[in-house]
Amino acid sequence: MITGDIKDAEKYKEQGNESFKNGNFVEALEFYTKAIKLVNEEGKDSATYYKNRAATHLKLENYEEVVKDCDKCLKLVPSDPKALYRRCQALEKLERFEEAYRDATQIFKDDPNNKAIQPNLERLYRIVQERERKNAQTTTKLESMSKIAFEFTENIDKRETAMKNLLVLAREGAGSTLMVKSTVIQQIKRLLKVEKNEEIRLTAIRVIGELFKHSSEKTKKVLHELGLPWFLDMLDSKTKEQVDAIQYCLQAILNSLSGMKNVSDSKPDKELIKTYEEDLNLILTFFINNLTNRLISGIARDAIIELLIRNVHYTALDWALQLVEQGGVERLLQCTSELEEFKYESSMNITHSTSTVAAMCLQRIYENMYYDKAKEKFMGKIEDYVKEKLLSPDMESKVRVVATITSLLRGPLDVGNAIVGKEGIMQMILVMANTEDVLQQKVACECIIAAASRADKAKAIIAQGVDILKKLYTSKDDGVRLRALVGLCKLGSSAGTDASMRPFAEGSNIKLAEACRRFMLKPGKDLSFRKWATEGLAYLTLDAEVKEKLIEDKACICAMIELARTGDESCLYGVITTLMNLLNAYEEQEVLPEMVELAKFAKQHIPEKHELDDPDFITKRVIILGKLGVTSALVALSKTESENSRESISRVFNALCSEQELRGIVVAQGGVKALISLASKGTEKGKVQACQALARIGITMDPEVAFPGQRCLEVIRPLIHLLHPDRKGLENFEGLMAICNLAQVSESVRQKILKEGGLSRIDHYLFEDHEYLCRAATQCMTNMAMSPDVVKIYEGPNDRTKMMVSLAMDEDLDTSMAASGCLAILTGSSNIICTKLFESQNWLHCLQILLANPKPSIQYRGLCMVSNIIDSSKENAEKLISTNVMEILLALSKLPEETHPKVAKTAEEILKAAEKLGIIKKPDEDI
After folding, report:
1. 629 dihedral zone (left: phi>0; alpha: psi -120 to 50; beta)
2. For residues 808 and 820, what is the distance between their CA atoms, to the nearest angstrom?
3. In angstroms, rounded to a whole number, what is the distance separating the alpha carbons of residues 521 and 836?
4. Are 569 and 353 in contact (CB under 8 A)?
5. Which of 11, 13, 387, 454 is deepest in the core (most CB within 10 A)?
6. What single DSSP character describes residue 351?
7. What is the DSSP letter of 505?
8. Average of per-residue pLDDT across 52-71
9. How far is residue 179's CA from residue 215's CA, in Å, rounded to a whole number?
10. DSSP label at 347?
11. How many angstroms separate the CA atoms of 554 and 444, rounded?
12. Which long-range contacts (CB under 8 A, 24 or more apart) does 219-224 make?
C-alpha cells in the first residue's frame, strides 16, 4: 500500500465523518467504502473504517451490513467496544437477542464501569429470559396444534384453525426453529398426499414457505427434508392458489440461498451464492428439465417460466448464459411452438399465457446477453431450432415453427425480425395464409400481425399481404376472420398518430373498429375472441376518431376491463395499449418549431396532430375510463414481469391520477399497492411514471387514508426518487409536496425519509431559482423540523440555519411563511439553534420583516422565534432586546385581537418574560 493511498483513505474517512455529522448517511457510506478499498484489509486503519461504516449502516437500518462490518473489525481488533456495541444494537434489531446479549456481556466484562451498556444488558437479559419462557410455551403450543392439525378424526374447523396457528408459529423465528427440529415437515409431507380440504392444503404449503424465510441454514435443512421432486408433485396442480403457493416457496428458497429479499433494489449476496452454488445450480437444472415436462399442468409450466424470468437478470441470479448453455432456450422454444390444436398423448399442457410468458423469458435472456459472443450463441440456438423444424417434411413442423417465430416477434424482437428477414420465411408465411387449411391460416395471420411491428415490414406486408388478409376475412371460421381483422387493423394503423397519413381509405379505421367491437360483444364466445378484438383496437386507437368513437361505447370498454381482470398475460398488450392510446399516455416526441420550419423548407412530411387529441378531449376520456373502474384492470395486469408492459401500466395510472377527482377511486380499487410495486421494478421511465402517480395521490389526499399503516413508509422511497436533477420540474414539485404531507404524519415517517437520504435531496431544492420548487422544499423542511434528528442536524457545524433565515425574508409570502414556521419550530426545540440564529448577518432584518409583516400568521411566527430566543438564555435575550425589536413588540401588543388573533397576547407575554429576566423595566420605573 503506498503513502498516497493512506492519505486518500484518511481524507475519505474525514469526509465520511463530516457527512455523518450532517446527517448525510448515504454520502458517508460512500466515503467510508472508498477508504476501505484503499487500505490493507488486515490493517488497523481498516478496522476503524469498518467500524465507522457500521455506524452509518446502523443509521440507515441496514442491520445485516452492520453485523458484517463489525465482524470484520473485531477480527482485526478483538473486543473493540464500539464494534461490539454496534453489533449488539444491530443484532437486537434483527431479533437475534441471544447473540446481542453475548456482545453486551462481553462489553461489560471488559469494562464494568461502562454505564452506556448497562441498560442494554438489563433489557436483553429480560428479553432472553422471556424468550426461554416463551420457547417452552411455543413447544407446548406446537405439540398441541400438531395433534389437532394432522389428526383426520378431528373436526374440520378445528383442524383449519390449528393449521393457521402453525402458520403463525412458522412466521416467528423461534417457532420456525422448533418446527425444523420437530417432525412437522414430515407430517406435512404425509398430510399433503391424502388431504382433500383445499384450505388445509394451502395453509400447510404456506407453512413450508415461511420456514424458508428465516435463514439459509434452515432452508437447506428443509429442502433436504422435502427434496425437489416433492415441489414438482405439489406444483402439478390445476388449482391456481396451490401453484402460486408452491411458486412462492421456490422463490423463497432462491432468496434465502442467495441473500435476495422481496423488496425493491434487493441484490444477491455474492458470498452466499458461492456457498450455495451447487444447490442453486441444482434448482436451475430442475427448472430447465421440467419446462417441457409432459405430465405437469399448464399453470405449473407457466409458474416455472415465471420463476426463470424473475431470476434470469444479472441483478438477480444471472441465469441467462446458463439457460443458453444448458438447453433452456430450446425448451422455451418448444413451449412457444405448442398449439392447443395439436393434441396428442405426448403434447404438453399449456394455458393461453404459456406462449406469452415463454416469449417474455426469451426476451429477458436476450437482454442479458451483454457481449457479442453471447448474443451469437443465443442466436445460433434459435437458428438451429428453426432450421431443424423447417427441414422436417411434415406440415405440422412448419406450423409449429411459425408459432415460434410469432413468439420471438413478441419477445426478443430483434431476433424475431432477423429470422423473418431470412430468405423464404415471409414467403412461406404468406403461402400458409393463402391455403384453405384453417390452422395454417390462423398461425400465419398471427405471424403477419407480429411481423408488421416495424414500418419497413408493414410496407412490405401491405404490398404483399393485404389481399390475402381481406380474403381470409371472408372465411367461415370466426377465429380466422378475427385474426385477419386484427392484421388489417395493424396495417391500417401503420401511420401511427399522424392524421395526414393513412394507408387505407378515409373511414376504413372506423369500420375496422366497429368489426372489432362486434367480436368484443359477441355472446357465447370465449375470452380469446375478446383478446384478439382488443388487440385490433390497440392498433386502431392511434386514430383519434376511433378513440372518440370507442370512449362513448361503454359496453365495449366494460368488456375490455372484464377481460383484463382475469390477469391473462396474453391479453395484456391489447388492453394496456388500447388504454394508453385512449389517454394519450404514450411518450410523444417534442417537435421544435425550428425543426418544423426546416422540414417545410426541405419539403419533408410533417406529422399532423388530430384536433380530437386536444387536452379537453383527453381529459374527458380519462374521467370516463376512471369512473368505469379501469383501475381494477390495471391492478390485475400489474403483476406481469414484462418491463415494457409495466411502464405502459404506469403511464395509464399516471394519466388517471392527473385528474384529482379520480385519485380516490384509484386508491379505493387497490391502485396504491400496485403503484408501489411498479415504482420499484421496471424501466426507469416506467418507475418515474408510477412515482409521479403516487405523488399526485399524496398531494391531494390525507396520507393516512391514501397510504394506511405500513404503506406510509413504503411510499417514501418512490417519492424521493422524484427528487433528482434528471427529473422534470413538475415531477420534482409533486414529489416535494407529497413528502411534505407525509412528513407531518408521524416521527417514524420522518425517520424513514431521513434513512432514504431525503433530507439532502430536499436541501438541494432550497437553492432553486424556481419559486414553486423552492417553496415546496421549504414547506417540506418545516414538517421535517419536527424530528429531533433534524434538529440535531441543524445544530451541527453547517449553514442550514442561515439559509432558512434568508428564505424567511423571501418575497414570496408562502415561502416566507414556511421558512419562518421552520425557524419557529427549530428555535423552540433547541437553545443551540437560537444562538446559531445570530450567526446570520440578516437575523435582525429577518425578524423586523416578519414582525412588521401585514399578515398576522407571519407576525405570529416571528413572535414565536423572539419568544424562543428570550427563553433560550439571558445573553441571547439581551442581544435581542438591545435592538429596536422591543419597540416593535410594544406596538404589536396594542393591536386589536379581532384582526390580529394571538399576536397582541404573544407580544405582551414576551415583554413580561423579558421583564422577569430584568432586561427591560416598566415605563414608570427608572431606567
Report:
1. left
2. 5
3. 72
4. yes
5. 13
6. -
7. -
8. 92
9. 13
10. P
11. 33
12. 219/252, 219/253, 219/256, 219/257, 220/257, 220/276, 220/279, 221/180, 222/180, 222/185, 223/253, 223/279
Q: What is the pLDDT of residues 431-471, one digit of tens each?
A: 898 888 999 999 988 888 888 765 455 455 556 667 788 88
Contacts of 287 (CB under 8 A, 6+ apart): 304, 307, 308, 328
- CA torsion through residues 204, 210, 212, 214, sign: negative
- Report whether 729 contacts 770 (CB < 8 A): yes
The CA distance from 825 to 131, in Å, is: 42
Judging by beta carbons within 10 Å of its beta carbon (0-12, 13-18, 19+), is residue 161 exposed, middle or buried? Answer: middle
Q: How far apart are CA 171 and CA 134, in angstroms?
A: 15
In 64-194 the beta strands, taken as DSSP E runs, fall at none
Could you say which DSSP state residue 540 is in? H
d(CA 237, CA 122): 52
Domains of the chain (ranges; CATH) run 3-114 (1.25.40.10), 799-927 (1.25.10.10)
| 233: nearest Cα among 271, 286, 275 | 286
Tell me how many degrees the CA angle 122-755-311 measures, rounded to the nearest 5: 105
State the first-to-last Cα distance of the chain, in angstroms, to the nearest integer: 71
Cα separation, 844 vs 838, in Å, equals: 8
Question: Tell me, what DSSP letter sits at residue 842?
Answer: T
Band (pLDDT 50/70/90 cuts) for residue 3 is: low
What backbone torsions phi and psi does residue 52 show, to the nearest 5 degrees?
Answer: -65, -40
* Interatomic CA distance for residues 615 and 634, integer angstroms: 23
How far is residue 877's CA from residue 917's CA, in Å, rounded to a whole number? Answer: 9
CA–CA distance, 14 with 240 (Å, rounded to integer): 56
Torsion sign (Cα): 324, 327, 330, 334: negative
Q: Say yes or no to pLDDT of 156 above 90.
A: yes
Task: Tell me which residue has cell 418507475.
Answer: 687
Q: Rounded distance, CA 373 to CA 360, Å?
A: 22
Identify the three-state secondary structure at position 473: coil
Please determine, for residue 128, whether its predicted confidence score (pLDDT) is greater than 50: yes
The residue with cell 439457460 is 323
* DSSP 8-class letter at 570: G
d(CA 741, CA 486): 47
Whether residue 507 is predicted with pLDDT greater than 80 in this model: the reply is no
Between CA 253 and CA 273 the distance in angstroms is 12
| Burial 128-139, CB ≥16 within 10 A → b, else e | eeebeeeeeebe
Return the DSSP state at 838.
G
CA distances from 921 to 553, 873, 910, 915, 918 (A): 80, 18, 13, 6, 7
CB neighbour burial string for 738-766, b if at least 16 within 10 angstroms, e if fewer: bbbbbbebeeebbbbbbbbbbbbbbbebb
98 contacts 128 by C-beta, under 8 angstroms? yes
- CA gap 891, 902 in Å, rounded: 14
Q: What is the pTM of this model?
A: 0.75
Q: Are 776 and 733 in contact (CB under 8 A)?
A: yes
Q: What is the mean pLDDT of residues 789-802?
A: 93
What contacts 633, CB < 8 A, 6 or more positions away? 560, 561, 564, 565, 575, 579
Alpha carbons 646 and 643: distance in angstroms, whole number: 5
User: Around Cβ 914, how many Cβ atoms within 10 Å?
Assistant: 23
Instruction: Report the 10 Å Cβ neighbour count for 595.
Output: 12
The residue count of the chain comes to 927
Q: Are 483 and 442 in contact (CB under 8 A)?
A: yes
**Three-point CA angle 342, 328, 568, nearest 5°:** 55
Provide the 3-class DSSP secondary structure of residue 82.
helix
Give the C-alpha separation, 910 to 617, whole Å. Answer: 59
**Residue corresponding to grid cell 455523518:** 20
Closest to 323 (Cα-Cα) out of 378, 254, 279: 378
